[in-house]
Task: structure prediction
Amino acid sequence: MGFLRIFLVSLCLASGAFADSVTVFAAASLKTALDEVAETFEHETGHKVVLSFAGSSALARQIQYGAPANLFISANSNWMDHIEDQQLTVPESRVALLSNQLVLIGHGQASDANVTFETPLRQMLGQGRLAMAMVQSVPAGIYGREALKGLSLWGQVADQVAQTDNVRAALALVALGEAPLGIVYASDALAEPRVEILGRFPAQSHSPIRYPAALIASGATPAAQELLDFLQSDDAREIFLNHGFQDPQK
Result:
């Protein structure tokens, strides 16, 4: 009996030795879905996942300045290119993980109709503000400004834009009633029951929304590779799709 107990303890210690912690820097728009994916991964592997969410620009700069991360998931390709150019990623690990759609949110009647150049955005705002992530640096804001310009709407509302550090902060402004309208991703709108999608921006009005993922060179552990593989699995993809993300191949 004593031998058996020692054997079982040794077995537990051995299996625990393979457990590791993986720190993921991820775009704020991924929070609700990635929380669920990480929980599933932890349950299946025993690894611990530490998630750090912010705007992709802020995360890329943190990685550039040496912040410890194993994996980076950006909400656009440019910020991944930025750290890749500095040889901070494992190049062959980069994958196009997800896609998304840009939407106009508010508290009116839900609609799947496209936002067009005829949409009376200024009148809809009244004296209120249009909540957007920072339009010069955060992907959701960059896409949003590009879409408004493409539809000749930017000039109408530029002086009424309330810029936030990330897209979830813009979502919160609308959810709390501090801004009547906002531009976020479809996945964000689905995560917040206090807002409605009032319109969808045509895909051709802005650059394709892509979420690249890659291992950080200084943190490319076997556990990090396991998580990156899991993010591309059917189980993970089903979770992402249920939260409003899209397959980048489609």
Remarks:
- The domain at 11-99+211-242 is CATH 3.40.190.10 (D-Maltodextrin-Binding Protein; domain 2).
- Strands lie at 21-27, 48-54, 71-73, 95-99, 102-106, 130-133, 161-164, 181-185, 196-200, 210-215.
